[in-house]
Specification:
Blueprint (H helix, E strand, L loop, with lengths): L50 E3 L2 E5 L10 E4 L1 H4 L9 H6 L9 E4 L8 E4 L7 E7 L2 E4 L1 H4 L8 E7 L8 E6 L4 E6 L5 E3 L9 E7 L8 E6 L13 E6 L2 E7 L2 E2 L9 E3 L5 E3 L5 E5 L5 E4 L6 E2 L14 E7 L8 E6 L6 E7 L2 E4 L8 E2 L5 E4 L8 E4 L7 H6 L19 E2 L3 E5 L5 E3 L1 H4 L7 E7 L8 E6 L8 H13 L4 H6 L9 E2 L1 E5 L5 E3 L9 E2 L1 E7 L8 E6 L5 E5 L5 E7 L11 E6 L2 E6 L2 E2 L9 E5 L4 E7 L4 E6 L5 E6 L4 E2 L12 E3 L15 H4 L14 E4 L8 E4 L8 E5 L5 E2 L13 E9 L3 E8 L9 E6 L6 E5 L4 E8 L8 E8 L11 E6 L2 E4 L13 E7 L8 E6 L4 E7 L2 E4 L15 E5 L8 E5 L15 E7 L6 E7 L8 E2 L3 H7 ...
Parallel strand pairs: 21-25, 26-29, 41-48, 82-88
Antiparallel strand pairs: 1-2, 2-48, 3-40, 4-5, 5-6, 6-7, 8-9, 9-10, 10-11, 12-13, 12-44, 13-19, 14-15, 15-16, 17-18, 19-20, 22-23, 23-24, 24-25, 27-28, 28-30, 30-31, 32-33, 33-35, 34-37, 35-36, 38-39, 39-40, 41-45, 42-43, 42-46, 46-47, 47-49, 50-81, 51-52, 52-53, 53-54, 55-56, 56-57, 57-58, ...
């Protein structure tokens, strides 16, 4: 690259001067006494002197208690901060990159103990404001030589890059380089040779990436100009090695045009423009930076391979953070548009490796900024990446330009799709994250830029602030369409094309603030906290500007005066600053942990990392509870620990007093389960089916609901075998136990045939008729012929029990509901193909000496009862007759009381008549140990896009929307006032089903302002409606005459639940739960629900459940989990677990840690040899444990083994009580040391 003349500008340049090490700089740690006066209602600190301790010093803070949590925006005539980040219209007529705005950096550059502010300017010159105290600031830009006039400055950071104890300044520009300005200690800076020339520099982040002690630099690049600003650009494409590529720009080679990596030519002829590669620079310790190549081995792919080319991304911001807590700074890079976010895990020695593909399941599309915080105080850092989804109905329906759903590939779950909403990542503690943006209520915060977590009210939990707005609402579909129409009318000059962008109106928005409620839920507090400035705001920095120990805020606004906020919190606090050893004098990368009784707070010292901005290197912690100790984990590996902590103090902790960290040599405890899926090596087969071609507004796919799984003794050898249902075109998976803990495939002619339809449920029936029941669905083909339910035996051809008809069936369960001694069947109806969710009928097949006959007595009762997803027979009311309990999706949890074989619905009587939800599955167990059956019901959870619509729920209007004979579903919300019901689905989606709406609503804005009643018109009265108000998965505890309903723990709500297994997994005498999670069969515009990995919930025996981490349970699944079932397949007295995954690996987990229990098998007679319906209770002479019911089917279309494993927590069991389905109760003594017993039903 040839020599380039340095640009004329007002960054002062000096020849390199090597400082004499003996010349001590002005210390940034000098003690300055401040006398600050009263300002408004805030009380400023008194002039307290530092007091020294061992390895630290502190001073007392004066905190106002006569105020409320929140902020006060201070006027410029009071503070002296009159900076306006101006940008002339002409500038962004020809270059819209400037609209990304500018930031602000906070730091005490002159070492006087007061934090100063540096604002970047686009057309405006930069401004450095020296803090004089008492909320007065002085413009010292000229003296400091940091004007940067005409530099189009974007991001900035204060950092001690040469280790002299003084804060230097780094500033990014668009096309004019990244400037490192060294602090001379006399109030001014000298510029070194710029880095990143010709780069579209945005944000920056600094950390010691190679662990040599100094601060290295990462710069995100966007572009200096885009093709959108070059309407006359001429590109030429050609085939290069058989691949279409852009080979020249305006007649110049890509290199000459500085466009290497810029363009990608698609096979369809479309051109995709990429951004520039970012830059990583290593510091030599003196502030001199050397670039690092992306392709020379410093950056590795997920498999450890070198990168073949640099990532040409649209970089907006980056943050260093020790994500995996190994003491090394990792790196998250936020990229705009289709550029994927880059997550680089530091391997040591300055080498980064891309994070594992499954560690993060999805990402934001327009990733603007990032911040980390321990949101739930579990000791692990969570984080947010902000995007552009609006909280406002009208904007959600008009801001659609450049947005399209990700291309998902059937059966692929490691693709990390991009969605346009804020993604929030909950740290699992094992290097993986669950995306929970919708659960947090932070998924939609408008066109967002700078996200910040800070504890505004100092309650110990980090709250959330974000800046918003854009000079042009360039997502407006109506304006985009109008522009395209104008382009078609005549040829426009390049200037005319550029000026078309001003058809877009300014997007003036409020900045937003949210309070952390402590349960990973946030509630908006923007107005209450005074953080609701309306305008266009970009960079934001936190700093303690008045030295009262809480974080104030500075915001750089677009074409408007900067905003400075005083923090008014009256709560007790602890502020912490660090004095690191040279050259990392601010301790960047150090983790500060503050421990109080029942509360663990932790933060990391970062440099840069904010969107175009940089915080002061101070951290603030709540101190309402007594602080036990403060611990600093320094980047050097040393540790400082302080005890005897008092609130309302600023602690400055020194690394030179730190000791070596004590290595934790404690081995990791073994997990409860061991993954032994290799014993099966089975993958569920499923063919892709486009549900939305038939019902274009169908809310989700029903073609991806399998598989169910079952444990059964297929060959009668006393060992539990495995059956896994298949999708159409596959084979049912049957695996026989070899009696030694392994499995083999048998020769089963009828089961080995390819299934023509999806098998939706399977059941091993052991009754007067015996075999494997396989339920098939005609949902996909919709044809009313062939078998729906077949029984397969070990020999011969399968026996047809039920014909396919107008109803596509879903689920299957067996019980002796009529008390005649044999097992009858319930078969649930899911839908009529093409008419979901219209209610359909279900059927009971009564067992008549091995022949199954439809029970006509209950046909009317079960007629059009809804869309049944799952079923369980259970003696819910304790009268020895099994009640029928149905999970309807959408619909109710329906309960039918069994009175001597006659069923009557009692749903409303039991208090369940108003809980309409997406009930996927249902299971029963004695969760509080009182001998009665309780219920657990699985729902969609609280982490779906439906959370955008508040607590009013969702209404599905369904039927013939357009009069064309096609059954569709129109989703709306805000049903508290039906006349104001608003559409959920986008205009484009609805138009596909109702094309004539274009005549009624010619624009997206017109549609956005229409109610559901307006849109549906007279047809609405002809439609059926389902109002869904329940989304949480719940437990229903039977307490005598009433049922108490409680949500399952928060972790159970982060993904839809399907399979439910009830068992005493740890052998402590209380029933636990396993939940199979996720759903990938969402519609294109509805983000995939993939936050679950399978969840084990430990029961306390009182009806309360506590989640176990993946590390504790050993259960880790990334796929689309469905049916689950339990058995002790190796006869070791511990409960093992089987889970099916749609188009994924069947998972088998062997329990290796549970306390061994007693294996119990019942012998119940010819018609019911397994004793289905019996209740077992293990006990001593004085008490009985929880009741366990023997069932044939339940949960999600699956079946547990007939042999039960029972335990007691603190005593050796001496007896087993069995309540038989006939009502007889027997007690069997248990011999000391017994591991297995068989109990026979007494003969009459």
């Amino acid at each position: 690259m040839g020599q380039r003349a340095w640009p004329r500008a007002s960054f002062r340049r000096y020849s390199r001067v090597r400082r004499n090490p003996s010349q001590q700089p002005c210390s940034s740690w000098m003690i300055v006494s401040l006398g600050l006066c009263l300002l408004a209602c805030a009380i400023t600190p008194a002039a307290d002197e530092w007091q020294s301790g061992d390895g630290y010093r502190f001073k007392t803070l004066t905190v106002s208690t006569n105020s409320q949590a929140g902020f006060t925006s201070l006027p410029a005539d009071l503070t002296g901060i009159g900076f306006i980040n101006r940008l002339a219209k002409e500038r962004y007529t020809t270059n819209q990159i400037y609209l990304n705005g500018s930031g602000v950096a906070a730091g005490d550059y002159d070492g006087d103990g007061l934090c100063d502010l540096f604002f970047c300017g686009l057309d405006s010159e930069n401004k450095l404001y020296r803090n004089l105290g008492d909320w007065k600031f002085q413009d010292v830009t000229a003296k400091a030589r940091v004007r940067g006039l005409h530099f189009t400055s974007t991001g900035a950071s204060f950092a001690d890059v040469n280790g002299d104890g003084r804060l230097d300044l780094i500033s990014n520009t668009v096309g004019r380089g990244t400037w490192v300005l060294l602090n001379d200690g006399q109030g001014s800076f000298r510029a070194t040779r710029p880095l990143n020339l010709n780069g579209g520099g945005m944000s920056m982040a600094l950390a010691d990436v190679d662990q040599d002690g100094d601060l290295d630099l990462y710069v995100t690049n966007y572009r200096t100009i885009t093709i959108r600003d070059q309407p006359g650009i001429k590109l030429r494409g050609s085939d290069v090695n058989g691949k279409p590529q852009v080979v020249s720009v305006n007649g110049m080679s890509l290199k000459a045009a500085k466009s290497v990596g810029r363009f990608e030519l698609k096979a369809n002829g479309k051109i995709l423009e990429h951004g520039q590669a970012d830059r990583l620079y290593l510091n030599d310790g003196s502030g001199k930076y050397t670039p690092v190549s992306f392709t020379a081995g410093a950056f590795l792919g997920e498999g450890g391979q070198r990168l073949a080319k640099p990532p040409y991304d649209w970089g907006l911001s980056a943050m260093f953070r020790d994500m995996n807590r190994d003491g090394r700074p990792d790196l998250y890079v936020c990229n705009d548009f289709e550029s994927p976010d880059r997550i680089w895990i530091n391997q040591g020695g300055g080498i980064f490796k891309a994070i594992d593909r499954l560690a993060i399941r999805k990402s934001s599309h327009f990733s603007m900024g990032i911040d980390f915080a321990d949101l739930n105080r579990d000791g692990h850092d969570d984080f947010i990446v902000v995007d552009m989804l609006s909280r406002q109905h009208d904007l959600r329906h008009t801001q659609l330009s450049n947005r399209k759903p990700p291309e998902l590939h059937f059966g692929v779950y490691n693709d990390r799709p991009q969605y346009s909403y804020n993604t929030v990542y909950l740290n699992s503690g094992d290097g993986t994250y669950a995306e929970i943006g919708f659960h947090t209520n932070l998924a939609a915060t408008e066109w967002s830029w700078s996200p910040v977590f800070m504890d505004v009210d100092l309650d110990g939990y980090d709250d959330f602030l974000v800046t918003t707005g854009h000079p042009l609402d360039m997502q407006d579909m109506d304006v985009s369409n109008k522009g395209e129409q104008l382009k078609q009318q005549r040829k426009h000059s390049p200037r005319e094309l550029l000026e078309m962008r001003f058809m877009f109106k300014p997007l003036v928005l409020r900045n937003l603030a949210f309070r952390n409620q402590g349960n990973l839920r946030f509630t908006e507090k923007s107005a209450d906290w005074g953080f609701d400035h309306e305008g266009i705001s970009h960079g934001m920095a936190l700093a303690d500007l008045d030295n009262d120990g809480d974080m104030d805020i500075a915001v750089n606004n677009f074409n408007e005066a900067a905003t400075v906020y005083r923090n008014n919190s009256p709560a007790p606090r602890i502020a912490v600053k660090l004095r690191g050893t040279q050259p990392n004098t601010q301790g960047v990368g150090a983790r500060i942990t503050v421990e109080a009784e029942g509360l663990l707070q932790s933060q990391e010292i970062i440099d840069g990392g904010r969107y175009l901005s940089d915080d002061e290197a101070v951290r603030v912690f709540a101190a309402s509870k007594p602080i036990l100790k403060i611990t600093i984990a320094w980047p050097s590996g040393k540790t400082s620990t302080l005890a005897d902590i008092s609130p309302n103090r600023l602690y400055e902790i020194h690394e030179n007093g730190a000791g070596q960290a004590v290595k934790n040599e404690t081995p990791k405890p073994k997990s409860m389960f061991e993954d032994v899926s290799h014993l099966l090596s089975h993958k569920h087969a499923e063919k892709s089916f486009n549900d939305f071609a038939r019902q274009q507004l169908q809310p989700k796919k029903l073609s991806q609901e399998g598989p169910g799984v079952a444990w059964l003794d297929w060959n009668g050898d006393g060992w539990d075998d495995i059956a896994v249902a298949t999708g159409s075109g596959g084979n049912l998976g049957l695996f026989l136990s070899d009696g030694k803990g392994a499995f083999k495939k048998p020769a089963a002619p009828s089961l080995g045939q390819v299934s023509p339809r999806d098998q939706v449920a399977i059941l091993g029936l052991d009754s007067s008729a015996k075999g494997l029941l396989v339920l098939q669905s005609n949902y996909e083909d919709g044809l009313a012929f062939g078998p729906a339910l077949q029984m397969h035996g070990t020999t011969g051809v399968p026996k047809k029990l039920l014909d396919a008809g107008q109803v596509a069936y879903s689920t299957l369960c067996a019980a002796d509901y009529d008390g005649d001694g044999d097992l009858d069947l319930f078969v649930g109806g899911r839908c009529q193909p093409g008419k979901y969710p219209s209610p359909v009928s279900s059927v009971i097949l009564r067992n008549d000496n091995g022949q199954f006959i439809e029970d006509k007595n209950h046909a009317e009762l079960l007629s059009n009862i809804g869309s049944v997803s799952a079923v369980v027979w259970t003696d819910l009311l304790g009268d020895h007759h099994p009640e029928l309990v149905l999970a309807c999706d959408p619909g109710l949890i329906r309960v039918y009381r069994n009175i001597a074989g006659s069923l009557r619905e009692v749903t409303t009587e039991l208090g369940l008549g108003d809980r309409v939800g997406f009930w996927n599955s249902i299971a029963a167990g004695d969760f509080n140990g009182d001998g009665n059956m309780d219920l657990v019901a699985a729902n969609i959870g609280t982490n779906s896009a439906y959370e955008l619509y508040g607590e009013s729920g969702i209404t599905w209007h369904h039927g013939d929307l357009s009069g064309g004979g096609v059954h569709e579903v129109f989703e709306s919300y805000n049903g508290a006032s039906p006349a104001k019901d608003l559409p959920v689905r986008s205009f484009n989606e609805v138009l596909r089903a109702i094309p004539f709406l274009r005549e009624l609503y010619p624009t997206y804005s017109a549609y956005a302002n229409a109610t559901s009643s307006n849109i549906l018109g007279e047809q609405k009265s002809k439609l059926d409606a389902i109002r869904i108000t329940s989304f949480e998965s719940i437990v229903i505890i039977h307490r005598g005459d009433t049922f108490d309903v409680h949500p399952l723990p928060m972790e159970a709500q982060l993904a839809p639940v399907y399979g439910i297994s009830v068992a005493d997994f740890d052998g402590d005498g209380s029933e636990d739960l396993f939940l199979a999670q996720n759903f990938f069969g969402t519609r294109p515009d509805f983000p995939r629900m993939d936050a679950g990995r399978g969840l084990l919930l430990k029961g306390d025996g009182k009806g309360v459940f506590k989640p176990m981490t993946s590390a504790m349970s050993g259960i880790r699944m990334n796929g689309d989990q469905r049916g689950s079932a339990v058995a002790d397949f190796n006869h070791d007295g511990r409960v093992d677990l089987l889970i099916g995954q749609n188009t994924g690996q069947t998972k088998l987990y062997r329990n290796r840690l549970a306390k061994r229990g007693l294996r119990v098998r019942l012998s119940g007679g010819k018609g019911n040899p397994s004793g289905v319906g019996a209740k077992l209770r293990l006990g001593t002479e004085t008490k009985l444990g929880p009741a366990r019911e023997v069932r044939a089917g339940g949960g999600y279309r699956s079946q547990d083994a007939a042999t039960q494993v029972l335990s007691m927590s603190d005593a050796t069991p001496t007896r087993l009580q069995v309540a038989w389905p006939s009502g007889e109760i027997t007690t069997t003594e248990i011999a000391e040391g017994a591991s297995h017993i068989t109990v026979r039903k007494p003969s009459k």
